[in-house]
Amino acid sequence: MIHPSRRSTVLMLVLLSLLVRSHALAGTLAEKVREHTFANGLKLLVVERHTSPTFAAYISIGVGAVDEDSSTRGVAHLLEHMLFKGTETIGTRDYRREKPLLDEIARVGGRIDELKNDPKADVAELERLRRRLAELQQRHRPLVVKDEFSRIYGENGAVGYNAFTSKDTTTYTVQLPANRLELWARLEADRMRNPVLREFYTEREVIKEERRRSYDSRPSGMLYETLLANAFTVHPYRNPIIGWPSDIDNLTLEETETFLHRYYAPVNTVIALVGDVEFDQAVAVVGRTFGTIPPGTPVPPVVAVEPPQRGEKRVEIRFDAEPRLAIAFHKPTLPAKDDYIFDLIDLILGQGRVSRLYREVVEKRQLASGISTYGAPGARYDNLFVISATPRKPHTVEEVEQAIMAELERLRSAPVSDSEIERALNRLRADHLRSMRSNAGLARSLTYYQLVAGDWRYLDRYDQVISTLTSEDVRRVAEEYFRPENRTVVILRREGEVR
Fold first, then answer.
1. What is the sign, positive or negative, of the torsion defined by CA atoms of 392, 397, 403, 405?
2. DSSP element (H, E) containing 145
3. For residue range 324-346, what is the model confidence (pLDDT) as tens digits?
4. CA-CA distances (angstroms) from residue 467 to 23, 71, 445, 470?
5. What residues does 34 pair with on adjacent strands?
6. Helix, strand, coil percentages, rounded to 5, for the chain
7. What's the gap between Cα 373 and its chain centre?
8. Which one, 74, 281, 337, 419, has least CB within 10 Å?
9. How do residues 150-204 score in pLDDT, each as one tens digit?
10. What is the radius of gyration, based on Cα positions, of the chain?
């Protein structure tokens, strides 16, 4: 067993090592990142790292759930699924035979979508159309090649082939041997230029089931969804990425294709290649494959502005699960200075076993079995600072909430010690470095901050900004934002529980 004083020394040495490398990276990142913008608006970021014969490729599109409206909620998540289905040459055994079937499936499925919510619809006609759709899907199935993108990548040594949709962006990732750059570019440019939304109606049902598993049947999903829906009144951050149940059921193929062809295009796209690649070669390869794709339509900014909250919002939901609690405070997003200060507050309050909330609420008083802090739900627009906790029996959510509020009040009223500030700043720098040490981590960071902050150089400036933060900054921000009228509280109680 390591003695506590020795453990502290070991931690400081690890942090010092990370900080040395962090300062070295920060000093050279601006020099290492090379960029090129093509005529169609596509931005390419390249970092050459020739330490191993591999590279990471991240394609991020600046469109996410926040960009949907009432007729398209859930479409970005649905498209993440659909773009794995292939193109006119990938995912099909014979596209010339497949295309007429796809057209007929679209016609019949579209007609079902028109009639299913019409109370005057002919029930017999609707049933006939559903049988016809099932028949067409059965005929279509033998023409589909499942997971062909994944198979091709796997046969060529790829790892980390994946995609994810957030409130702000949609990203496709993969890591490949260095000599597969051309293959990657051809596959991904084909996906952008010639996507085919095959198996649309089947996949829509898959997502409805995903929603039931992840939100409707999980207490954590229900708590989080309820928190966002109540903390935000008008801003689309209030809507779940997957969509509400009625949204998914009513997403049409026509609306989905329109959204895809409008926004999933070069003008909204950033590509980062990090690893054993040459910049000039990358520009040439990406230019040949992506450079002639039409630019598409720039994603318009969200015009809805969340009004200041004028009073505490408090919601209680019932679910067959252990009680839990979530508290959210509105806050500004990057690159506002207060957002950097919230990064510091996040570490002081809720990250790790030395954080204030863990020490006081979990360890010392044993009121909660777990507690966490985080920013949510996105970063392109002003967002939330969230504290979540699960009470430890026999303690109640009320006891946990009171303890959390006491710690927030302490942050508001008493200065944080210099040693606590320095420890948190060191951890911020170390975490910042850790996120960029791998090729994939740096590629992800570059595309994310280019789209969300408007400039990847946010990464380069981060250490410089946080180095200026003080105990008074923390106290001021806590005083300004941790106010009752800026607070939303959601409590999940077990069904039948008596307060």
1. positive
2. none
3. 999 999 999 999 999 999 999 99
4. 12, 45, 20, 8
5. 46
6. 55, 15, 30
7. 17
8. 419
9. 999 999 999 999 999 999 999 999 999 999 999 999 999 999 999 999 999 999 9
10. 25
